[in-house]
Every structure is written in C-alpha cells, then in structure tokens.
Amino acid sequence: MRSSRRVGTALWAAVFSLALPLSQAHAADNCVEFQGLQHCGLGAVKVSGSEKGVRIDNQEKEPSGKSGVAIHTPPAAAWTAETQSEGAQRNFFTAYAEDVPVSTSTVDSSREATSYSATFTGSGDATTYSVLAYYNGQLQAAVGGIRSGDTGAVGMMLPTPGWTPNCRPRTQTYAQCESACYANGYSNCNYCNTPCSLTVGFASAQLSSACLWQYTVAEPGVRLPNGQTVRADQIVLQEEISGPSNYPYLNFNRIDVQTTARSTVITGESLIPAGK
Question: Tell me, what's the pLDDT at 259?
C-alpha cells in the first residue's frame, strides 16, 4: 500500500482488528449480507441483518474486544461505514490484503474522551503516521512522525459557553450528558437526546497517496500529540511513506470490526472498488 506521500489528498472527496484467523469468519449460520457484502461473525457474537444494517450482539460474559464481524469485499480501494454502539467501549478496525492484516486502527472511548490510534505495516517496525484534523472540510492542524501504534488524537468535550454540540458522546448516558452540558456551559442540552454515531473509513494507496483511516469526531475538541488542541469534526490517520515505493498491496479485500460493546449496529456502508 505504498505511494509517494501527499498529505493534501488525505481528505478524499469520493467517500468517505485485532484479527482472528480467517477460518473463524465463515460460520455459515452466522453471516448476513448487507449492501452486497458478507458480514460473518468473529468470536462469540450473534449477527443479524435487515435492510437498515447489520446488528452485532456480543455474547461474551466479559467482552474482550476479539468479537465482531469480518466484512468480506471484492478488491477495494476504500470502505466507509457508520456504527452505533451501546456503552463505554473499545473498537478495533483491521484492513486485510490477501488475508494479511496491513493496518489496524483503535478507537478507545471513555465517558470523558475518545482516543484514536493506528498501526501500519508499510515500513515495518519503523513505520510512522500523521494525524490531520479538519473542521468543516478545512485543515486545522497536522502532526507527523507518530510511531505506528501510538495515540494520534484524543477527542474531548470543551467548556464552550454559547455553543452546543451536535450529539451525545457515545459513552455517556443521558444523565451524564446533561451533567456535562451544565458543567461546560453549553447554550442548551437538547443534543443529549441524539446519540453520536461513529463514521469510519479506510482507503488504500490506490485511492489516496498512502493507507489511511478517517473518522468523524463526536467531541468538539481534538488534542494532538504535540499538545495542541483544535476544534475539529473529522480526523485522518495517514501512513507516512518515504523513499522508493514497492509495497505489494494496493487494495484490500476484508475489514474486521471488533468491539467490547455489548451491541453494535453497522449502517450506511459503502465501497469503492479497486481500479483495474
């Protein structure tokens, strides 16, 4: 998934897991089709589907983060989906090329904040990535040289009198949201009635200049690894590429979604096929 690095292309216009062996992803009685893609259970989950989306119910007594679904795709350049989960959680997204995991991103949500990290394989143990923060489509800040696997951004609720968030952070109950609303001085607390969803996207080097993960941000503030905090509604975690490009994987054919949440619903899924 290699190409010359061009940070400016990270916010693509078209679209927008801690992996288990592939053999565990093919329980025929635990697979559903949605948007033309097969979603097969990983670990102890019950998978069900409708025209509105795919529901994943975790059957583990103590959720480990190893359960979820494997989404099998034709050779693809980009994938995006919207998810809704219940309670505090960790979400893991892994992209595979020819059954080899090439990148994993982790979204770790608590009551107060959400952290985002990514692991890429392009340069082996020396791989680094950049985080880019956007607001209304405009780049607000960018930090590079983040070691693969380290935290790239932390979304936070900020005291902002006279301003109102769009939705309730995923890990807050209504009562917790209302309490935080008063503490932060927001103009009203109606946003607590609307739980935030998580929109996640992955793009390969064929579509972008390098592999990247893209997320909507539920909290209004994003703290970057250099200590800077900016207002943002979207972040991109993009692999950094240096030197000649000989990376063999220019597309992917599977995305794993794994979580510690008790239930998760995947909706709004879309795919950009790989070019010939």
Answer: 92
Tokens (6 digits) for 56: 């994943």
Q: What 3-state DSSP class applies to 275? A: coil
Amino acid at 248: P
Q: Are 227 and 216 in contact (CB under 8 A)?
A: no
Q: In the prediction, which pLDDT does 54 show? A: 95
Six token digits for residue 97 = 């090329």
Q: Is residue 201 within 8 Å of residue 80, measured between CB atoms?
A: yes
Kindly state the tokens that stand for 209.
Answer: 């200049």
pTM score: 0.83
Identify the burial level of 147 via C-beta atoms within 10 angstroms of its C-beta, where 0-12 means exposed, 13-18 middle and 19 or more buried.
Answer: middle
Q: What gap in Å lies between CA 117 and CA 133, rounded to an integer?
A: 14
Q: Which amino acid makes up residue 32?
A: V
Amino acid at 211: C
Q: Could you read off the pLDDT of 187-232 as tens digits, one per residue?
A: 889 989 988 888 999 998 766 668 899 999 877 789 999 999 999 9
Q: How far is the C-alpha of 116 from the C-alpha of 32, rounded, in Å?
A: 29
Q: Are the C-beta atoms of 241 and 10 separated by less than 8 Å?
A: no
Grouping H, G, I as helix, E, B as strand and the rest as coil, residue 46 is strand
- Residues contacting residue 156 through CB under 8 Å, at least 6 positions apart: 112, 113, 219, 221, 222, 223, 229
Q: d(Cα 256, Cα 254) in Å, to the nearest integer?
A: 7
d(CA 261, CA 82) in angstroms, rounded, equals 15
Longest Cα separation, the chain: 54
